[in-house]
Amino acid sequence: MKSNSSNIDEIPILIKTANSITNDHVHVTEPLNYTTYLGLDSLLSSLRCLSHVDRSNESSLPVHDEHFFIIIHQAFELWFKEIIYEIDSIRDIFGNNDDVAAFVFDINLRLNRIGKVWKILIDQLQLLESMTPMEFLEFRDFVTPRWLEKIYDETSFNFCKVYEKAVESMIDHDKQEKIQNGIDEQITEKEADKAKLQFDEMINEEKYNALVNSNQRRISHKAMLAALMIAHYYQQPCFQQVYQIISLLMDNDTLMTSWRHRHILLVLRQIGRKPGTGGTNGFTYLQATLK
């Protein structure tokens, strides 16, 4: 909280303000205190309400809940900035180090932190839910206008062939078991063929790359195989920490999806299918982010 006694114990010092995206620094010489260090003057003055209780009088007070709405969304943006900062630092580790083993502990700590931030963001949606659609509509009109690949390359055994044999054996075993249990042989054959086709699209590099090119897959074929290998051999000492990284990434993806889903439901409740406050087409745009 910003103190009224902000001039107490001021220390002249060179303040460096880091930019989380470019990693540049702005050098400013000014007295260092709680207010200047956190940049509270610029931060707190960035909240500007645009609405008016009396639409015919621009000097009238803003609609009460607009202040609340802006605070919540500014808090969201600050937390998003922190998430991006942590993710960029992890990407930097993988991009600038051939051997990341020494950094695995830090990576896991940062991924855990990101997960906790997502939980806070999900909880913060409950605050917005305290505002009724009618209260929101009162002011809405004023504001509407590559490391996995390396792991796979360094593996001494042919995981792909071993895994392919194991899957084919499993599919055939399941097929025979279903037939023995009296399930229609023709249906069973079709299910087995479908399973083999789906597996082939994953294991066959050319077919997998076609899915990548059509945006149905996001990581490279080699990275996918590495993740698959780690998931199967996670108990091996060499894979335990890396498996934790993958698990934390999946946890964070789940939390992010949960936040998006909750946010979409909130938007639908508040404004239905009207255009969003950010100039997007609202619900339809947000729904597309889940795909």
Give your account of this protein's structure:
With 291 residues, the chain is mainly alpha-helical. The protein folds into three domains: 1-46, no CATH class; 61-146 and 243-288, Methane Monooxygenase Hydroxylase, Chain G, domain 1 (Up-down Bundle); 152-219, no CATH class. Helix content is 65%, strand content 5%. It contains twelve helices and two strands. It has helices at residues 34-38, 40-45, 64-96, 104-128, 133-143, 147-153, 159-180, 185-203, 205-213, 221-232, 237-271, 283-288; strands at 11-18, 25-32. 10% of the residues are buried.
Secondary-structure map:
Layout: E1 11-18, E2 25-32, H1 34-38, H2 40-45, H3 64-96, H4 104-128, H5 133-143, H6 147-153, H7 159-180, H8 185-203, H9 205-213, H10 221-232, H11 237-271, H12 283-288
Antiparallel strand pairs: 1-2
Helix pairs in contact: 3-4, 4-11, 6-10, 7-8, 8-9
Give the count of structural domains: 3
How would you classify the helix and strand content by structural class? Answer: mainly alpha
Task: Give the CATH level 1 class of the largest domain.
Answer: Mainly Alpha
Q: Describe the global form.
A: flat
Largest sheet: 2 strands, antiparallel
As a whole number of angstroms, the C-alpha radius of gyration is 26 Å
- Provide the succession of SSEs: EEHHHHHHHHHHHH
- Biggest β-sheet: strands ordered side by side in the sheet: 1-2
Fold-level CATH name of the largest domain: Methane Monooxygenase Hydroxylase, Chain G, domain 1
CATH architecture of the largest domain: Up-down Bundle
Number of strands: 2
Number of helices: 12
Average predicted confidence as pLDDT: 77
Bin the helical content.
55-70%
Low-confidence stretches: 2-21
Tell me the span between the first and last alpha carbons.
Answer: 40 Å
Q: What portion of the residues fall into strands of 2 or more residues?
A: 5-15%
